[in-house]
Each structure stands twice: as C-alpha cells, then as structure tokens.
Amino acid sequence: MSPAPPSVIAELQEHLSKLALAIEAQKEILRDLEKQRSQALSRLNDCFDPIARLPLELQSEIFLCCLPSNELTVNTRGPPILFLRVSRLWRDIALATPKLWAHLSIAFPRHSLDLCESWIKRAQHLPLSLTLRGDLVLGDRALELLDDWAQQLQHLSLDVGTSRDADWSMRYICIVEDLPCLKTLSISSSDDIYFYDADNWLEILDAAPELVQLNLRIGSSEQSRSRLASSEPLVHESLERLQLPDPKGVLQYITLPGLKELSLQFIDFDQEHLKAFLTRSSPTLVYWDLNPPLQWSPVMTDCLRLVPSLVHLFLRIGDNNTNIITLLATPSSNILPNLCHLTLQPYFTIRPEDVDPIIRMLSVRRLASADFRKLESFRLIDRDPPNSDFAAALGKLAEDGMNIRVGKSREDVE
User: Fold this and answer.
1) Cα–Cα distance between 202 and 63 in angstroms, integer?
2) In this structure, what are the phi and psi dihedrals at residue 131, rounded to the nearest 5 degrees?
3) Rounded to two decimals, what is the model's pTM?
4) φ and ψ at 213, to 5 degrees?
5) For position 73, what pLDDT does the model report?
6) Which long-range contacts (CB under 8 A, 24 or more apart) does 401-404 make?
7) Is residue 362 left, alpha or beta, with left meaning phi > 0 and alpha meaning psi from -120 to 50?
8) What is the pLDDT of residue 405?
9) pLDDT at 139
C-alpha cells in the first residue's frame, strides 16, 4: 500500500484537532451543567430545610446556641466550622453571624496564624475573646496581627509554656499602647523560673483603663524597678479582681479603689506595702484568697481590719500563723465583722492542737451578734481526714445549720 500524500495526512491531523477541541468544549458544557445541577439541588434542599423558613436573626440565634458552653476551641468536626460544610444555606448563615467567630482558643504550633487570622476576620468588628496556648514565639507577623486586634480585645488569655513564650507574651502586651475595651487578662506560665518585670504590669494597667480582672500566674523579678513609679501611685478605677502570685515591686505603685476580689501570695514580701496599699485604696473587698507570711505579724492583723467588708476568706495557715484563728474568735479584735464564708487550707495538715481553737472560732462566729455576722459556711481542705473528735464537732455545727464541706482539694469542697 502506497503512503498517503502529505495533504491527506495534514487534513486528518487538522480534523483530529477539531474533534479534540469539540470534545473539550462538550466536557466544559457538561461540567457547567453538573455545577448548575448541584446548585439547583442545593437550592431545592434549602427550600425543604426548616431553617430556611426562619428569619436570619433566628437562624443565627440557633447556630449560636449550638456553640459549646465552655471555651471555644478549633474543632473541624464541630461548630462553627461544621456549619460551613453542611450546605450553602448553612454556610451563608454562619458567615453572616459574626458572633460565631468572636471567641477563639487556639494552640500553636498545632494551628496556624492563617487559621487564626481568617477566623477573627469573620468576627468583623465585634469584641474578641482570645486564648493563645503553646509555643507563642510567633514572630513579627503575630505581633502585627495582635496589634490590629487590640482595639477589639475584650478578653485575652495567654497560656504559655516556657520563659521564651512568656517573654514574647509580655512583649506583645507592652507594645500595645491602647487596649480600650479589654476587660479580663490572664497570663500564666508552666515555667517556674520565669519572672515578669513590674514595669510591664503597670504598663498593662495604664493601657487598659476598662480592665476588670487581671490574673498573673508568673512571679515578679526581684530586680524590677518601675519606670512608672512617681510620688503618686497609678490609680485604676475599674479593676475589681486581682490575682498575683508575688506582688513584689507592684503594690506600692498602684491604687485600686474598686477592688472586690484579691488573691496574693506573701512569700518574702514587705507587709507594710500591703497595709499602705489597702489604706490608700480603701476597697470594698468581698473575697480574699490569703496566703500569709509564714510568721503572722501585727501588720497583717491591721490589714484585716482595713477590709471590714470582707464576706469570703480563703485562708492558708501554717504552724507559725495559726494565731489568726484566735483573732477571728475574739470580738474585741474587730476582725472581719461581715465574714460569712470561711475556707481553711493548712500548708501540711491540721495538727491536733489546732482543732479546739478552730472549733471554738467556728462556734463563736456561728452566733450572730453586734460584733459579727453569722458564719454560714466552712470549708476545710486537708490532705488528711479530720480525726474523730474534729469530725464530731463539725457534725454538730452542721446540725445547727452551718454548711460544712471537707475534702482533699479545692475542687472537692466547691
């Protein structure tokens, strides 16, 4: 068979090219039809979706009710991300509901800054509740993003793991000069060797005039020197709840007249600074988590007299400061006349010689008088259970109506 002439070959090749183009065009038409069919089916499903018949406001409220009651963490199998994957209607509702995205707890490096940024963008301009955990040494981009969100931050928690993380966290907080709507701030570190500078603490208060709650679970540096220190301490009107593990270099520079709840740990601490702080602030304190110095002093007694409004005292006691029990049972001492709820936690365990003073104090405080309000509840946190005499005495107080709980941990008695 003789070979086909070149003209025939060229013609066939051209024909094949045209057929290939025509097939591709038909495939494109088919893909478009499939897409249209999918969209039509989605719209049809939306028509049968009972949520589609509700106003957008009610749709959004239903979605908000599906959020977990505890802290909202990134979960691709749960709301609100799940809502993006159910249907077009649900996705539209989720994206039209900024409140779904105004709370976020995210762990690094498991999750990325990109995810964090896209999530927060969906919250639009709503106040933000943000919890960052893990490796927080995220670089300049993270600092820029957090600075962008500073005006919206209402609740911020930094749960750091190492000193480097804590340094980064405090660096972020301190470069932000304005946190106008920040209400609560918590910074904690599992690294016991990390210490913050008191300057940072005061700069935070200065930048956040609306701050109501501040929890710092990191110690202050002994070398801390406050650049903000002046003849007049910094006055912060809004702060109501304060937790500091170590107040060295801080209390002498602040005045907190609105303080209602206080948690401080007094290890190697100048008690005169505490007395001056309470005198200067004159707070209507309601709750005090008191971890006193190992040796009780008259200055600490004066401090208790400065907070007659106190209703709930969480008191840690050691072998050398149990005389506070005697003070509480002495009407003439004028100590905490409004105390209604008392929690005791010994450093080690209640000694036999401490039982009678404790029972005597509880009995005196149980009888309402011109000097004391009636003690309504007593909590005992002790690694060892009460001996038989102690348990029997507590039982009689319980029969009289006092709410009594005994346990090995704080969770057991709450």
Assistant:
1) 40
2) -120, 125
3) 0.78
4) -135, 130
5) 65
6) 402/362, 402/366, 402/375, 402/376, 402/377, 402/378, 403/376, 403/377, 403/378, 404/377, 404/378, 404/379, 404/380
7) alpha
8) 94
9) 59
Give yes or no: residues 112 and 171 share one domain.
Answer: yes
pLDDT at 285: 97
pLDDT at residue 239, as a whole number: 96
Q: Which two tokens stand for residue 292?
A: 């006193």
- The answer to whether 398 touches 362, Cβ cutoff 8 Å, is no
DSSP 291-335: E--SS--HHHHHHHHT-TT--EEEEEE-TT-THHHHHHT-GGG--
Q: How many domains does the chain have?
A: 2
Tell me the C-alpha distance between 327 and 296, whole Å. 11
Judge whether 274 lies within some domain.
no
Q: Assess whether 135 and 60 both reside in one domain.
A: no
Domain annotation covers residue 75: yes
Residue 129 three-state SS: strand
Single-letter code of the amino acid located at 128: L
Domain termination residue (choose one: 174, 193, 212): 193
pLDDT at 83: 85
Q: Give, as one character, the DSSP assignment of residue 158.
A: E
Query: Is residue 371 domain-resident?
Result: no
Exposure pattern of 302-335 as b/e (b: 16+ CB <10 Å)? ebbebbeebbbbbbbbeeebbebbebbbeeeeeb
Inside any domain, residue 21: no
Low-confidence ranges of the chain (pLDDT < 70): 1-2, 41-53, 70-76, 109-110, 135-143, 160-177, 190-199, 218-231, 246-249, 266-269
Side-chain half-sphere CA neighbours of 176 within 13 A: 27
Query: Percentages helix, strand, coil for the chain, rounded to the nearest 5?
Result: 45, 20, 40
Domain that includes residue 160, residue range: 102-193
Give long-range contacts, CB 8 A cutoff, 24+ apart: 399-406.
400/366, 402/362, 402/366, 402/375, 402/376, 402/377, 402/378, 403/376, 403/377, 403/378, 404/377, 404/378, 404/379, 404/380, 405/377, 405/378, 405/379, 405/380, 406/379, 406/380, 406/382
Please check whether residues 151 and 106 belong to one and the same domain.
yes
Q: Encode pLDDT of 276-293 as tens digits.
A: 999 999 999 999 998 887
| Cβ-contact 197, 222 below 8 angstroms | no
Q: Are 135 and 61 found together in one domain?
A: no
Q: Which of 32, 65, 99 is at the close of a domain?
A: 99
